[in-house]
Amino acid sequence: MKTPFSRRKFLKTSALATAAGMSAPLWHSRVHAAEASPTSGAFDPAIAPGPFDGTAESLKAYQVPDWFRDAKFGIWAHWGPQSAAEDGDWYGRHIYIQGEPQYKTHLERFGHPSKFGHKDICKIWTADKFDPDHLIELYKKAGAKYFMSMGVHHDNFDLWDSKYQPRWNAVAMGPKKDIVGLFKQAAQKQGLKFAVSEHLAWSYVWWTVSHGSDKTGPLAGVPYDGADPQYADLYHDYPKEFLVPEQNNQPTRLPAPLAWRQHYFDRLKDLIDKYQPDLLYNDGGMVFPEVHYRLVSHLYNVNAKLHGGKVEAVYTSKGRNDSAIGTCVFDIERGVADNILANPWQTDTCIGGWHYDQKVYQSNSYKTPKRVIDMLVDIVSRNGNLMLNFPLPNNGALDDKELKILSGITAWMDVNSEGIHASRPWKIFGDGPGTKPAAAADLRFNESKLQDLTAEDVRFTTKGDTLYAFVMGWPEKDAVIKPLAANGQYVTGKIADVQLLGFPGKLKWTQDTDGLKVELPPEKPCDYAYALKIAGLKLT
């Protein structure tokens, strides 16, 4: 992600009502009619009956289910046709922006986007080594309690047998497999909750560049393939006034027509009805309130019917105000909350780039297992969950470096998961020089400013009457937990016992006005973030 303005901030993609045999000209006429009059055009986001009626007021009663509070760690396959080129995120868009690195590599590998564009990239997404059962088994061993499949990215290509996008979906072309359905079956076999990500809302804006042309060179002025009406169901059919110049190659924020919003609702309702996800991730905020409140209500109502009237589903939004009272879970892209949040929240991040990138692999730029574990413990101590993307290459199999990272996470979880899963935050999340992430206006993208955590840093979680103190590095001598000083402001009661997860022996420890001091054994029980299990204190 180059700047804080990249990929997700601008929400997402999707496109044309080719549903029900609707032709591009008919879709085009409905878009124009809806734009001409905000109240015209078909707009009927009907929802399933249940406890929520599609209004913001009714959604205030929503409560985050316990399974999400307990899960703490999820793994995501941010994988789709843009992964076919293995050339990084937003590939589908950037190949239509002359001067972008991906435009240049696309020209060298495949030819000019007036001839060979994203429509053709979709066809070479092979997934020939895709084994969802094997992947989900690995993710479960690594401690993931939920798994998320991509549903649809900004590129308007659905990863299921889509009723409303019948030509551009993973069953119709490319892998010719129901990616969402296969991932769901695999997750259910392993007892994991199943999530789907949708990035569709701003596709209508994201794809405008595909209707442009080179500004210089031998093909200057030759329209890209997005301007060809026969592909309008992938690239959209825009009114002329919509195709305005962009600032800094970023999608221009213009209102999508009513007909597009209806189509967006229909697409995602189809996804919900077919797969009943436990979690639906929205790559953005609720930008179409009249649509999103109904969509979220539909998700919850469908889920309540499956669970005897109790809502066990989760919807995430990157709009912090969306989750202020009930409604949904706050998601922070590549960022960490600045304190313990009252309600459970989620970080979504990646070991590298969002879509697979051979350059990241070759330059060894993936997050290390230590970085992942530091983030996981830090996030959980602040009442959050970590959703971690392992980007899959074209063939659908993890590369050797990804497998090594996953192995490191698995080994750590084998020792320390009891202090993570089903835990709750303590009075404070931690102590030490790495306590605060660097400031960011809305918390997103602040992970790049996080300090490396060391033996001077500690993070806390609780479970019942047990306090876990994670020492984030191996100290040269004793581990010192300053917030547990005798008669300190956070301590009620007296410590009765201290254990080190992964070490079977007795520890020597003392508690005085300087803190809890623990003499650690000569051998480390794991490679990072060492968990002290503390009994005897009153934690509330």
In short:
This protein is of the alpha/beta class and 540 residues long. The protein has helices at 24-36, 56-59, 66-71, 91-94, 101-109, 118-121, 132-141, 179-189, 203-206, 232-235, 258-275, 289-306, 358-362, 369-381, 400-416; strands spanning 73-77, 146-152, 193-198, 279-282, 314-317, 329-333, 345-350, 384-389, 430-431, 458-463, 466-471, 478-481, 493-500, 508-512, 515-519, 530-537.
Main beta sheet strand tally, sense and closure: 8 strands, parallel, barrel
Which whole number gives the mean pLDDT?
89
**Global morphology:** globular
Distance between the termini: 41 Å
Describe this structure in words.
By secondary structure, the chain is an alpha/beta fold. It has 15 helices and 16 strands. The strands form 3 sheets. It has an 8-stranded parallel β-barrel, surrounded by 4 helices. Strand 4, helix 12 and strand 5 form a beta-alpha-beta unit. The longest helix is centred in the middle third of the chain and has 18 residues, at 258-275.
Chain-wise SSE layout:
Blueprint: H1 24-36, H2 56-59, H3 66-71, E1 73-77, H4 91-94, H5 101-109, H6 118-121, H7 132-141, E2 146-152, H8 179-189, E3 193-198, H9 203-206, H10 232-235, H11 258-275, E4 279-282, H12 289-306, E5 314-317, E6 329-333, E7 345-350, H13 358-362, H14 369-381, E8 384-389, H15 400-416, E9 430-431, E10 458-463, E11 466-471, E12 478-481, E13 493-500, E14 508-512, E15 515-519, E16 530-537
Parallel strand pairs: 1-2, 1-8, 2-3, 3-4, 4-5, 5-6, 6-7, 7-8
Antiparallel strand pairs: 9-10, 10-11, 11-16, 12-15, 13-16, 14-15
